[in-house]
Amino acid sequence: MHIEQFRNFCLSFPGTTEEFPFDERTLVFKVIGKMFALCDVDQFESINLKCDPVQALELRETYPGTVIPGYHMNKKHWNTVFMQHNLPDDLIMEWITDSYNLVVEGLPKKDREKL
User: Fold this and answer.
1) Where are the membrane-spanning stretches (predicted)?
2) Domains in the chain and their CATH numbers?
């Protein structure tokens, strides 16, 4: 998956916005103001995705060196996925979808209903 595919897929979810809240390199995707994915636009080497804590551990064990605790994120709830390890696009899209859905589930009911 290349950065344009990643960006387009993230933006395909309802209520998604993109911004650079930290610096001019870190692209963040949010749903109703809550982050669900981010990456470095200059060096698309990895992506950070929110993850269920149990699943996060399972993915780290299943894909050692490819999926690690979230870099500069809450290690319990975020994973960093290294893109140069050539994971199948459908697997990455599944993880992005899971991240989006996890964030949506945590939104107040009135915000979920907007989506």
Assistant:
1) none
2) 3-107 (3.90.1150.30)
